Amino acid sequence: MEALLSNEGVRVNPHLPAIESEAEVTLRTPEEVAGRLLALAIVAVKGEGLDQETVDAIAEERGVLPLLSPKEHAFIAENPPSEHDRLQFSWRYEAAWVLFWALGWDESPVLGLPRAICDVPRLAGTVRDTPDLAARGLRSANDILNEADLIYRCHWAVRQASIDGEVPSGGLEPGVTMERHHALNWLIRYNDAEWDEVSTDT
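Structure tokens predicted for DUF4272 domain-containing protein (202 residues):
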């Protein structure tokens, strides 16, 4: 992993520990992941500016409310939301993309480095048009753990660049990096935390 990152121009810290192994991790179920994907999509689309009436109608139709975290519940109820909250929740598309990939709706073998925002129209369209987002099951634990290890190391590089007052190495995008790290740590049950409490320490 370190060689891959180094070849891509990403600063590497050789002292970071390895993340959990397959034997040590229990992934979220496909149904849990599908529910979380739906919750992230609805808060992201509201963050992007969708009107409250339409948000409420979609949430009702898809049964989203029980899937929301406490912070997401508060945001969905906020009418109108603050610009700060809108911006923060619009970033959830990037977390949603991780789960979209993990559920097999993006067929790329890997997520790739967090250098650019995801394909929002494709994500939103698939979530909108797919009644059972868990239908394809979940990727292997090995695939998901490889991504979790990669993003952990990328997030260290982003944070170290911020501390040093530098641009992140390797073209890494800080917002995309953070959202992916959050989603992957939730997916692998890091510290067994619920969504709002997931940590992304490096």
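Residues 41 and 136 are 18 Å apart (CA to CA).
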